[in-house]
Structures are given as structure tokens and as C-alpha cells.
Amino acid sequence: MNFEEDAYRAPILEEVQRAYDPGSVGRQIAAIAVSGDRRPRLATIKVPALVIAEGVFSLIS
């Protein structure tokens, strides 16, 4: 099975161009910074869940 680059190029470029927003990273970082520690609230969730993490995981160190 061969990879047909041309068949994938157009839809991928379309998605990248549609989603390009240079300011989004700054907005996401600001939202994370002001949202506070979510761990106490997460501890109140009463549904089965499986969390898989290797070592200490932190989105922002």
C-alpha cells in the first residue's frame, strides 16, 4: 500500500489554514493561569474514570 501524498495534502492544508490563529496560544495560557487549581473540584466527580499518567504530569511546569 502506497501513501498518496496528493490525496492527503489538500484536506490537511485546508484544516491547518482554517485553524490557524496565532493569538490562541496566549488566550489558552491566560485561561489556564486564571482558572486556578481544579483538583479539589475534580475530586467531587462521582463517575468511574481511569487516569493513566507516567511520573509527575503537569501541563505547565
Could you describe the 3D structure shown?
The protein is mainly α and 61 residues long. The protein has one domain. Helices cover 51% and strands 0% of the residues. It contains three helices and no strands. The longest helix is centred in the first third of the chain and has 15 residues. It starts with a helix and ends in a 19-residue tail after the last helix. The mean pLDDT is 83.
State mean pLDDT (0 to 100 scale): 83
End-to-end C-alpha gap: 42 Å
Strand proportion, as a percent range, falls in: under 5%
Q: Nearest-angstrom radius of gyration?
A: 19 Å
Count of DSSP H/I helices: 3
Order of SSEs = HHH
Structural class comes to mainly alpha
Helix content: 40-55%
Characterize the biggest β-sheet. Answer: none
Shape: extended
Catalogue the unreliable spans. Answer: none
Can you summarize this structure?
By secondary structure, the chain is an all-alpha fold. About 50% of the residues lie in helices and about 0% in strands.
Q: Which key terms come to mind for this protein?
A:
extended; 61 residues; mainly alpha
Helices and strands in order:
Layout: H1 5-19, H2 24-35, H3 39-42
